[in-house]
Amino acid sequence: MRGFHSASNVEPFHKAERRKVRQLPPGGGQEILTNSIATMADDESIFGTILPSREGYPAPELGLTMSIVLTGRRWRSLLDDKLRELGHSASRMEAMSAIAYAPPHTTQIQIAKRVGIEGPTLTRTLDMLEADGLVERLPDPSDRRNKHMKLTNAGFTALGEMLAVTGALRSKLLEGIPMTEIRSNLGFLSLLMERIDDGLSLDED
Predict the structure, then answer these.
(1) What is the rounded average pLDDT for all residues in the chain?
(2) Among 50-54, 118-122, 139-143, which stretch is predicted with the lowest mean pLDDT?
(3) What is the pTM of this model?
(4) Beta-carbon contacts of residue 163 (< 8 Å; ≥ 6 apart)
């Protein structure tokens, strides 16, 4: 797994410490040797007790969640790099996509929930989109505190350009992967998202 170290490609800690000891300068390494032995003892009292063992780290379950997080970060970073060439960003595209595909009269609060970000963060993004003439905030006749969100014609055009760029990148990313596998993984990730949205709690003894 790229980005992670398994037991097969990480030098065991005790061997690394012994190698350091062999490289001590002649006649003046007693203090370094003592510190090295103490570090080895501390290591044995930590890994496998307080922390997971170094051997076989990370376990498959941990490696899975680490991969999910890192893949999302790297994918978003790639999108930002490409969309920046159009004067946009992943956050602008996400907000505009949520507005475009939301039911009529969807409020700003509902858009924030769909995108999965805090209200103030979305407000700043929408302020910029509105200033650029890509989004409109329409008053809610039934509640003045709410605003309905709508893309302008320029907004639909800009979103189409962004989705074309990201669609091409996605095709490259998923090239050669069967649709059955894509659907299977989508179902798996959807299940994880559902469990997170429902809230996770640790059982108390």
Answers:
(1) 83
(2) 139-143
(3) 0.71
(4) 93, 97
Q: Which of 114, 78, 99 is nearest to 158 (CA)?
A: 99
Structure tokens at 77: 């970073």
pLDDT tens readout for residues 24-62: 555 555 555 556 555 665 677 888 888 888 888 999 999
Alpha carbon separation from 51 to 3, 31, 57, 64, 113 (Å, rounded): 20, 28, 11, 18, 36
Q: For 7, which DSSP code? A: T
Q: What is the amino acid identity at position 54?
A: R
What torsion, rounded to 10 degrees, do the Cα atoms 183, 186, 191, 192 define? 150
Distance (Å, whole) CA 22 – CA 40: 15
**Structural contact between residues 76 and 90, judged by C-beta atoms closer than 8 angstroms:** yes
